[in-house]
Amino acid sequence: MTTENDIFLSYKSEDSGWVERLKRSLEDRGVFVWLDKDSIRPGDLFVEALEDGIITSKTVAVIVTPNSMQSKWVKEEYHRALSLSKTIGTKVVPCILQTTEVPGFLSSRQYIDFTDETKYEQCVDRLVCPGITRKWIHVETFTHNIYPHDWVPLNECSERELGFSMRGGLSCSRMGEFVSCKKRGKDVRGYGITPGDKQHSVVVLDMTCHGVDDCVEFILECRNSNDGVYDKIVFVFYHPRNFLSTQAASKMSKELLERFSHYYVIEKSGDLVTLQKNVRRAWNSVLQDLIRAERTN
Known about the structure:
CATH architecture of the largest domain: 3-Layer(aba) Sandwich
Distance between the termini: 16 Å
Low-confidence stretches: 39-45, 181-195
Helix content: 40-55%
Shape: elongated
């Protein structure tokens, strides 16, 4: 049977409020979620509806609490999911909401620890990648000079919001040395970032100052090399509001400006709260792209 849902949420009814929050967070990242209260229609046979939900989901997330580990229905659901993991490859991901003893066949699996509320958003990100997509995200950053001053707040906000560093790394003029593309399984250039079976590749670019020409040439070459490949490199721009329509406009044709306007952007801001929101907004868009790409695989 063809999978229609990205994830099935197995939980105890006492945790329904938190699970509904998780569902909204996943949907913000482009995930198709199966949740019993939303997916079982009047007149459906409950057991058959659960079976259909599990078998048509790529991943089953088991919400682990003391109550859920004692629930008959939750046990039925994760036993069925574990069985399907051996036959059709359904992935089972324990999500620890409250610390409790976990059965051995669940505890041996890679889990996500939601017990620290301050890391909730980061945990949801992990549930998407690698939880659903089964690929880690590799991020590389390119700037018009090494470690520019305005990347310091970006790095601070990315560590706080996403849980990893986004330091300004390599000069734009050296992009071709470090980034590679793939088309039909063949490396096209470079030796650094290569989309593949175990990772998604995200490149964050600062197009300001003299980096515009280098960035445009590099992005177009990567896009042409990856045309039609589902695990293409995802590009994120880091520049001030309206940069493309003002400073970059003199160096780009109208057609290119229109094309580049659809890329993801982290808008620069001197206010850390605003910048952190911009980072989250862009990252959710990236996750939407990645989860959508996986469905076409």
